[in-house]
Amino acid sequence: MTGAGGMVQDGAAAIEVKALHKSFGALEVLRGIDITVRRGEVVCVIGPSGSGKSTLLRCVNLLEEPTSGTVRVAGVEVTDPDVDIDRVRRRIGMVFQAFNLFPHLSALGNLTIAQRRVLGRSRPEAEEVARRNLRRVGLAEKEDSYPARLSGGQQQRVAIARALSMGPELMLFDEPTSALDPELVGDVLAVMRGLADEGMTMLVVTHEMSFAREVADRVIFMDGGAVVEEGPPEQVVTDPRHARTRAFLARVLDPAAADVLEHESPPSPQQPSTPTNRQREPKDGPREPF
Amino acid sequence: MSRRNRTRAIRTAQYGVLVLVVLIVAFAADWGELRRAFFDVEVAKKQFPDVVTTALVNTVVYTVLGFGFGLALGLLLALMRLSRVLPYRWLAVAYIEFFRGVPALLVFIALGFGVPLAFEVSINQYVTVMLALGLVGAAYMAETIRAGIRAVPRGQTEAARSLGMSPARAMVSIVIPQAFRIVLPPLANELILLTKDSSLVYLLGLSMDQYELAKFGRDALNQNRSLTPILIAGLFYLAITLPLGHLVRRLEARTARAR
């Protein structure tokens, strides 16, 4: 059964993470993660800081090398030492919290350099793709601007356009709005929403609960280097089953209410965590539909 | 004494010392003799145009040659220093420590005698000059460039790699261009030092038409029994180094603004 299920998954899974462990020295950041992201799916990863969300994301394109476990992206096992990771990374767009635009290049230069140097496209060809993607993120008029001249929100949209210019099959977003002033968050989320509507496969680490609720097909709540709860947003964000998820959401959505909640319903007694987990697993297991 | 009075007294004493020193120097020095030695108009006239067409031009050419070679070698050494291959790191460290620790004078003498011994055919004088100045300059520039490369944020490499660039491509297209912008002020400083170090190339043994400013000045000093050519040579060095120094300050200000 597992074998047959696995084969079906390979056809439809954009990202498949199995038994992923990652340690930095003695610090175990990921303690056995299993997740699958299907083609066209938008999955948001939420959780307190230090829960390993970003590390998980960075393991997907091997910016961090997993300690053990396997990661398959678009059918290629990236954790296999014989795989040419540069080839796989071309197919994975990544957007960083700190934007990481190249400050010595204009917006257009940021979008064309990898197209030309990695994909071998000609300059006119690369510029055409770049302009199309700048239009897509609403910054067509900024092609000659250097990153230092752009606002944070504009920089992040250029960074998204840069990733898109490589024609990725899936996109990873590592807290894309966390470094932005509140009034600039909306533009970036709108671009991401547009991508989701176009059917882009997206794995998004975020603190934007409204985005997760409205855009995600599935939400994963992580804590302490493990997946605590996962399922459709209306379940995980709106009606979480797990006490730790509830406590986290209460803190994020309404910091003032968090204390009250923690005092009124102490999580520990209500938390026979193993049975609850077992109970829930069949219901929200993402693999079951296949 | 009140605070105001004390400040005033200290200020007065400071100016008093300055005036005293100036007076002593002014009265003790033999101004007539100095003027004859350093400001001999006839001797000064004789230096032109050679001091410009030969000496100044050579100084600039030697410096540019040495700087170009030193920059390339310095970049190579910096990359070796950051390499994962241990022997490369050793070699780079040994080179840098050696050439920073030994006086440039000795390097020039060694090259002046060593190069003709090593190569039976006499190699181009300009090549020897380029080697001598570049070998010493590279050691300093390597450390500067290494610091620049390390100052480029990790996220830049990560962004480049996540776009599918190989480590080498990310280094060449993304990290090194930014590293050079960061180290532009100290590199310009290096150029100033190298301009002055070019005065040592006489140790390599040069013919008349290869004299640079310092050697030209000393030669003219012997011929004319006047220090005027030395003053002229010094002024031409300043004509090179002062604008460069100004450039360094402007670059530093620009870097400070960019942060």
TrEMBL record, chain A:
The reaction(s) this protein catalyses: a polar amino acid(out) + ATP + H2O = a polar amino acid(in) + ADP + phosphate + H(+)
GO cellular component labels: plasma membrane
InterPro entries in the record: AAA+_ATPase (IPR003593), ABC_ATPase_HisP-typ (IPR030679), ABC_transporter-like_ATP-bd (IPR003439), ABC_transporter-like_CS (IPR017871), MetN_ABC_transporter-like (IPR050086), P-loop_NTPase (IPR027417)
Pfam families according to UniProt: ABC_tran
Lineage per the UniProt record: Bacteria, Bacillati, Actinomycetota, Actinomycetes, Kitasatosporales
Gene source species: Streptomyces reniochalinae
Keywords: Amino-acid transport, ATP-binding, Cell membrane, Membrane, Nucleotide-binding, Transport
Protein's membrane topology: Peripheral membrane protein
Matching SUPFAM superfamilies: P-loop containing nucleoside triphosphate hydrolases (SSF52540)
Name of this chain's protein: ABC-type polar-amino-acid transporter
GO molecular function, one term: ATP binding
Family listed: Belongs to the ABC transporter superfamily.
Location of the region described as Disordered in the Swiss-Prot/TrEMBL record: 256-290
Enzyme Commission no: 7.4.2.1
Residue intervals of the ABC transporter domain: 15-249
TrEMBL record, chain B:
Record-linked InterPro entries: AA_ABC_transptr_permease_3TM (IPR010065), ArtM/GltK/GlnP/TcyL/YhdX-like (IPR043429), MetI-like (IPR000515), MetI-like_sf (IPR035906)
Membrane protein topology class: Multi-pass membrane protein
Name assigned to this protein: Amino acid ABC transporter permease
Gene3D superfamilies in UniProt: MetI-like (1.10.3720.10)
Example GO molecular function: transmembrane transporter activity
Presence of keyword Transmembrane: yes
Family matches, as PROSITE patterns: ABC_TM1
Compartment annotation: Cell membrane
CDD domains assigned to the protein according to its UniProt record, in alphabetical order: TM_PBP2
